[in-house]
Automatic annotation (TrEMBL):
Record's signal peptide: 1-26
UniProtKB keywords: Glycosidase, Hydrolase, Signal
CDD domains per the UniProt record, alphabetical: GH32_Fruct1-like (cd18624)
Record-annotated Glycosyl hydrolase family 32 C-terminal domain positions: 393-566
Family to which this protein belongs: Belongs to the glycosyl hydrolase 32 family.
Protein name: Beta-fructofuranosidase
Ranges for domain Glycosyl hydrolase family 32 N-terminal: 51-370
Length: 573
């Protein structure tokens, strides 16, 4: 079947399903044929080489990541019909290493009354014994959000190509009695099994402006009862999309989602704030008897503003990788192009590199680091011995493909006395970064990397640090400044920033950036803070891209380590 005829089939299918003309069970195999992944379109300048993205069309949230029979599965929100959001199905790919991926037919697509207008986000749960199940949000004929269950048709198939939807769907519905707003009831988490033998799941919700994680319990995974109290809620935060709830310790060895009560465990509640498009999390204690989550922080009604990423990173989801005993985070990185431009390029959205996630030893924040497997793509290492980088100087890192690279640099600071004073009214790091961009000289810093830079420096993305002297300690600011990233005036070039909890007197300041044509994913201080940027250079493309280390401050800094690698292209069809 040619691509065009596939699309005609798919359109026809969606129309017929919408009007209830096709019987869903009978049409199952034909549906799948029509929803085959599309073939690749001609190569385009902003496509990435080792970040996950489908050959064409729109992609948003990662859904239900899991490992089954030794294979990693990634499902994701996908529009088979175009590069804009709509007609949402669960597209599906599998991998043996989380880096190279094979596409399959969409796993879940509209076929029942409970999802006829869309198959929105959700999660997988692995039952004791290893059988997976998917809970996802369906959009019903009245455009209400309801929760549905699907299970694999054939458990001996490691690819889990076919999924059966429960005849009892929808399992959770908004009703006047339960006072759930039918347009704010979505994105079930991975369920966890309590010591009382009952499953728990949370679902994103809002009532007026209060964001909520509604809690449901079930003995059989089919009949779910809403608990009297949400697991947690915070007033004034708006809709909580894609909640995630899981245990962590300060050991990078991860824990299964159902682990409760063991020594040293903290729980993380992450919510994707629809209002700001930020993934915010709180660390706290889960009382599994009362079924409530009590965040440790006191600020902002106990949501203290911690984010996985201070750039672009949304609707993320973690899963427990039982193969390698670790918790892994996936997140969606949207375009910064105008809608008309991403529709014109025929695709939109990439997934961030999967990140290992654990609790910092302070217990106050999470740590994140690109999974080890990404290092298999490294080639042609360039290394520099320690060397000073004088204030006002710049050094080109030569010998790497600067548009497709992994660079890791550490700095030592010996002249802290030149630090500018920190004004306590500077409470917004993003604003501070936009006021003090890469070209504004400071006492210590800006120093860091200029990435995807054109030779004439008309274009570059700068990821850097500045150190200030606060009343009691030094304040470290990490910024990603996109203001000069492209001569094209249309993309969003917001500068991002975060305060880093490091002591520059006693610790080296490290920065690792994964550069992939239109993405810069940066990890400060070995993973204490991450900033992801989408950028669209017009000159600094492919072989015309350059990579520099710079110091635009007055004080000298020392480069104590600098390693950079060109990255091979991953196999992602
Ligand atoms: N995307 C899905 C929703 C979710 C939102 C729809 C978050 O289920 O709330 O594509 O990006």
């Amino acid at each position: 079947m040619t691509i065009n005829s596939s699309y005609i089939w798919l359109l026809l299918l969606l129309v017929l399903l919408k009007h209830g003309i096709l019987e869903t069970e009978a049409s199952h195999s034909r549906n799948l044929e029509a929803l085959q992944p599309a073939a690749a379109s001609p190569s385009q300048i902003y496509r990435t080489s080792y970040h996950f993205q489908p050959p064409k069309n729109w992609m948003n949230d990662p859904n239900g990541p899991m490992v089954y029979k030794g294979l990693y599965h990634l499902f994701y929100q996908y529009n088979p019909l175009g590069a804009d959001w709509g007609n949402i199905v669960w597209a599906h790919s599998t991998s043996t290493d989380l880096i190279n991926w094979n596409p399959h037919k969409p796993a879940i697509f509209p076929s029942q009354e409970g999802d006829i207008n869309g198959c929105w986000s959700g999660s997988t749960t692995i039952f004791p014994g290893g059988k997976p199940a998917i809970l996802y949000t369906g959009i019903n004929p009245s455009n209400q959000q309801v929760q549905n269950l699907a299970v694999p048709k054939n458990l001996s198939d490691p690819y889990l190509i076919e999924w059966d939807k429960s005849p009892y769907n929808p399992l959770m519905t908004p009703t006047p009695e339960n006072k759930i707003n039918s347009s704010s009831f979505r994105d079930p988490t991975t369920a966890w099994l309590g010591p009382d033998g009952r499953w728990r799941v949370i679902i994103g919700n809002k009532l007026n402006r209060r964001g909520k994680a509604l809690l449901y319990r079930s003995k059989d995974f089919v009949r779910w009862t809403k608990a009297k109290h949400p697991l947690h809620s915070v007033k004034g935060t708006g809709m909580w999309e894609c909640p995630d709830f899981y245990p962590v310790t300060s050991n990078p060895i991860g824990l299964d989602t159902s682990t409760v009560g063991a020594l040293g465990i903290k729980h993380v509640l992450k919510v994707s704030l629809d209002d700001t498009k930020h993934d915010q999390y709180a660390i706290g204690t889960y009382d599994h008897v009362k079924d409530v989550f009590d965040p440790d922080a006191v600020a902002a009604e106990k949501f203290s503003g911690l984010r996985y990423d201070y750039g672009k990173f949304y609707a993320s989801k973690t899963f427990y990788d039982s193969l390698k005993k670790r918790r892994i985070l996936w997140g969606w990185i949207n375009e910064s192009l105008s809608r008309e431009d991403y529709i014109a390029q025929g695709w939109s959205g990439v997934q961030g590199i999967p990140r290992l996630l654990w609790l910092d030893k302070s217990g106050k924040q999470l740590m994140q680091w690109p999974i080890k497997e990404i290092e298999t793509l490294r080639e042609n290492k360039v290394g520099y011995p320690p060397r000073p980088l004088k204030g006002g100087s710049i050094l080109e890192v030569q010998g790497v493909k600067a548009a497709q690279a992994d660079v890791d640099v550490s700095f030592e600071l010996s002249e802290l006395k030149r630090a500018d004073a920190f004004d306590p009214s500077w409470t917004d790091p993003q604003l501070l970064c936009s006021q003090k961009g890469a070209s504004i000289k400071g006492g210590i810093g800006p120093f860091g990397l200029k990435l995807l830079a054109s030779k004439d420096m008309q274009e570059y993305t700068a990821v850097f640090f500045r150190i200030f002297k606060g009343q009691y300690k030094y304040v470290v600011l990490m910024c990603s400044d996109q203001s000069r990233s492209s001569l094209n005036v249309k993309p969003d070039k917001t500068t991002y920033g975060v305060f880093l909890d490091v002591d520059p007197l006693h610790e080296q300041l490290s920065l690792r950036s994964l550069i992939d044509h239109s993405i810069v994913e940066s990890f400060g201080a070995k993973g204490k803070a991450c900033i992801t940027s989408r950028v669209y250079p017009t000159k600094a493309l492919d072989n015309e891209a350059h990579l520099y280390v710079f110091n635009n401050g007055l004080a000298n800094v020392t480069i104590s380590n600098l390693s950079a690698w060109s990255m091979k292209k991953a196999h992602i069809d």
